[in-house]
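[Help] Beginner question about ligand-bound structures

Sorry if this is basic. My supervisor gave me a protein sequence and a SMILES string for flavin-adenine dinucleotide and asked me to "get the holo structure". I don't really know what that means in practice or what format the answer should be in. Inputs are pasted below exactly as I got them.
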Amino acid sequence: MDHYDLVIIGTGSGNSLVTPDFDDKRVAVIESGLFGGTCLNVGCIPTKMFVYAAEVAATIRSASTYGVDAHVDGVRWRDIRDRVFGRIDPISDGGRRYRLESDHTDAYLGRARFVDAHTLEVALNDGGTATVSGDQIVVATGSHPVVPEQVALAGVPFHTSDTVMRIDELPERMVIIGGGYIATEFAHVFSSLGVEVTLVVRGEHFLRHLDGEVSRRFTEVATDSWDVRLRTQVTSLTTAGADRVDVALTDDSVVKDALLLVCTGRAASVDDLDLPAAGVAQHADGRIVVDEHGRTSVPGIWSLGDVSSDYQLKHVANHEARVVAHNLVHPDDLRSYEEAFVPEAVFTHPQIAAVGATQEELDAAGVPYRVKVQEYADVAYGWAMEDRTGFCKVLASPEGRLLGVHIMGHEASIVIQPAIQAMNAGWTAQETATRQMWIHPALTEVLENALLGV
Ligand SMILES: Cc1cc2nc3c(=O)[nH]c(=O)nc-3n(C[C@H](O)[C@H](O)[C@H](O)COP(=O)(O)OP(=O)(O)OC[C@H]3O[C@@H](n4cnc5c(N)ncnc54)[C@H](O)[C@@H]3O)c2cc1C
Ligand SMILES: NC(=O)c1ccc[n+]([C@@H]2O[C@H](COP(=O)([O-])OP(=O)(O)OC[C@H]3O[C@@H](n4cnc5c(N)ncnc54)[C@H](O)[C@@H]3O)[C@@H](O)[C@H]2O)c1
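Answer (accepted):
No worries, everyone starts somewhere. Holo just means with the ligand present. The predicted complex, written as structure tokens, is below.
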């Protein structure tokens, strides 16, 4: 058995824990899947590379609005795919090689399982077994797609976000189950690239965790753009070809010969870890319980990212990794997860970004507020773009303290950033609007005007 100062399970955000503080210590990283984790290999990075290609196609399709005649001559899917993974795969390979060849770090390629609070058994991908122990262990095993039993047991071919980006040919039709982040991002990607997309959403609206006005107004746009079936579920699935399925729905329709993409949420990757063997406490949904410093219920075992966080977002996992990296070597000066204002963005069409409370959350908590909604169309750049759907909503306390900002529209993920900064700095809406100049006539004026309005 090899003993280490630090053992890290999972090379997503966990990989960044190997800071110079560990240069003279022994570190083991254990990884069962693609080196670099979800974000790099099957999450944020490839999806946004596909989103960018989709936006290029969508921009060309709408060009005539502005007097520029252009059309999409064709979509070379394999070239799009190979550009994405031709850039990503070498980074993942390089990361794995670096850890394998590094002097003070050992890499174990296999699946880790706790034997006790300091010992792990690794079922190596090459068939062997290794046992390692650590003074400190960090569990950063992330999350994985949840597939409803109805699909898993049907015996039909289906995809999740783990596989759909590597398909060989674009299908003519795609059925996407789910109405959350991944469903709406892939609907944008594949429809922009010419696939007929049907979205099967069991609820009334898309993205129901967002502010109600965003969720409602996005659902209206989505319903105009895609074949959207709200309040609908799958009744049966029948194999129609090598990678094709006939999907029967509760509205009595059947979508024939479609590629099936399941986007029904993600669950903490804990199943193989045998956390009870180490005594690590878990929430009812499987996530590992941690305190604000990233400590689990067992001294010496830490956790961060999707496997333990309240959020499944990379910028949160990165933040938590920075905190844990510090805490591992400064036991008398612990830092905390600071997650009061966690921003998020959905890279669908139109883009969506949010930070802070929704109007519904304020209502439910009985918190008094003022609200201002500013349309993109009513600021210069939105007007130039002939934007008809975008808006920015600011919620503030009666004294002007910023409580929540919600944006739907072009580059919402960028437009929102001054509000995130202001909320962290404790600036009021008035201070945020007037303490700085806002570039005219940039799109950020939509936020400036909403702040002045509120
Ligand atoms: C399609 C998609 C798009 C996304 N887009 C965005 C986005 O735009 N912005 C954003 O903020 N977030 C996005 N996310 C979420 C983001 O990817 C995750 O929040 C983030 O990657 C979580 O990082 P992590 O370090 O917690 O886990 P991961 O990166 O998942 O790393 C965990 C690693 O642990 C390994 N592992 C698991 N179990 C074991 C075991 N028993 N033994 C050994 N190794 C194990 C896994 O193979 C994996 O490599 C997206 C997610 C998906 C799926
Ligand atoms: N841009 C980003 O930051 C980004 C992008 C993609 C993913 N993510 C992260 O990944 C997480 C997972 O994404 P996701 O889209 O899979 O989850 P999600 O929670 O956003 O959406 C899941 C959807 O599936 C539906 N659903 C769940 N079970 C179902 C069932 N049995 N039948 C039919 N519908 C069902 C839900 O009602 C919901 O509409 C997100 O919560 C997010 O944190 C982030």
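A couple of things worth pointing out: The longest strand covers residues 105-116. The chain has a mean pLDDT of 97. Feel free to follow up in the thread.
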